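Ticket #4471: structure export looks truncated?
Reporter: QA, pipeline team
Priority: medium

Steps to reproduce: submit the single chain below to the structure queue and open the exported record.
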Amino acid sequence: MDINMTFIGELVFYSMFIVGGLSYYLGKRKTSSPKIATFIGVLLCLTPPLNIVYLIVLMLKNNEVNNVDIDATL
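Actual output as written to the record:
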């Protein structure tokens, strides 16, 4: 089977948007710095198996508890 390099480049390009959006969404809930989580997710798109592993690790991480949420419930 012949795989064109253009196809691989498009796969990496489109996965940057998808994984970047998912990383930001999960980064807002799971970390204190969602921009860094998004940046790491987008960089890992250059090697497609690593970006899937990164998203799985973010999903399995516990939610970040904000002090604002605790004060609002008291």
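Status: closed, not a bug. The export was complete when the record was re-opened. Leaving a note from the reviewer for reference: The CA atoms of residues 16 and 24 lie 12 Å apart.
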